[in-house]
Amino acid sequence: MKLIASKTSPYARKVRILLAEKQLPFEFVEESAWSPGTTVPAYNPLNKIPVLVTDDGTCLYDSCVIAEYLDPLGAPSFIPPSGLERARVKRDEALGNGITDAGILVFLERKRDPARQDEAWMARQRAKIDAGIAALARELGGKPFLHGDSLTLGDVSCACALLWLEFRLPEIAWRARHAELGRWIERLESRPSFTQTRPPA
């Protein structure tokens, strides 16, 4: 397998963590969809990362599709097989992705000329981020993981979202408001899969 991805992408980090947890061998091809001359469109016509290229040459995107493909490939499993438990884990994956989506929209808006930045638009995205983090804190409660005693795709997705916010939008300072999420993240960050996939400084 070959993963086309950036070391700073939270969606790519989600996939890289799953690969590391499962100890699945793969070739990492570092690419940015924003770079002139990027090769990403050769793998994904939407010019978005990550893309997983399977051994038979099939290109899989986006991170949700890749996670579904990887889950049956060895242990442990991060997605329940069916029913409400599966739906809850997929919902939590969507929550993490949604927090990340809103954060990226703020990050990109800030790259525009200050006179053209839409403060109301950024406030709307920030409200989504804050509401998403609050929902995550309620879901976690005092549990070691979002769904009991084992790491799921929902944990990975939401953790990647919060850690990306610290990396790109540190002023959000979610740990100051949610100590229980901070303790949860600290436990996850002690895992080799998280240590190995930290974005470069």
Tell me the overall shape. globular
Number of discrete helical segments? 8
The CATH architecture category of the largest domain equals: Up-down Bundle
Task: Give the CA-CA distance, first to last residue.
Answer: 27 Å
Tally the beta strands.
4
Radius of gyration: 17 Å
Low-confidence runs of at least 5 consecutive residues: none
CATH topology value of the largest domain = Glutathione S-transferase Yfyf (Class Pi), Chain A, domain 2
Secondary-structure element sequence?
Answer: EHEEEHHHHHHH
Tally of individual domains? 2
Average residue pLDDT:
97
The CATH first-level class of the largest domain comes to: Mainly Alpha
As laid out across the biggest beta sheet, the strand order is: 2-1-3-4
Helix content: 40-55%
Question: Strand fraction band?
Answer: 5-15%
What composes the largest sheet? Answer: 4 strands, mixed
Would you give an account of this structure?
By secondary structure, the protein is an alpha+beta fold. The chain folds into two domains: 2-70, Glutaredoxin, CATH 3.40.30; 83-191, Glutathione S-transferase Yfyf (Class Pi), Chain A, domain 2 (Up-down Bundle). 52% of the residues lie in helices and 6% in strands. The chain is built from eight helices and four strands; from the N terminus they run E-H-E-E-E-H-H-H-H-H-H-H. It has helices at 10-22, 63-70, 83-109, 119-140, 153-168, 174-177, 179-189, 192-195; strands spanning 2-5, 27-30, 51-53, 59-60. It has a four-stranded mixed sheet. The protein is globular. The mean pLDDT is 97.
